[in-house]
Amino acid sequence: MFSKEEAALLRKEFWTSFGKSFPRKWLLYNTKIKGVALKFVADKKQAMICLDLEHTDELMNLLYYDQLLSLKTLLETELPEVIYDHAYELENGKIIHRIYVPFEEKFNIHNKNTWRACYEFFVEKMAILEAFFYEYEEVIKNV
Fold this sequence. Notes:
Elements: H1 4-21, E1 36-42, E2 47-53, H2 58-70, H3 72-78, E3 83-89, E4 95-102, H4 115-141
Antiparallel strand pairs: 1-2, 2-4, 3-4
Organism: Polaribacter gangjinensis
Pfam families: DUF4268
Protein name: DUF4268 domain-containing protein
């Protein structure tokens, strides 16, 4: 078991190591669409790449989600394992719309032996999700 401080240091080391091992400027929060962000998620239980819809206006979230749903078949050709979840519950209890690809291997951010495979997953899958976003950005914006 780790103390809060030790766990925080491990999380910091995980992300720092990822950035140094795979230096690249990712799109992430810079989508230029309010409430739409690409994210890396890694915690004690899982890792995933996500496209999250968290606009303050729920109607906008639904419109963006519907646009992305209309592109589902196209995204599935690139990422067959993609999951569309219109009511994903975050750890804090907040419900968002999330489109994501889970890392299927055993993962725990506190176990450094799981990091390398996760990093490789992140780089491969996020590059595909980013390319998809760039390709269909205008369609997604057009709500």
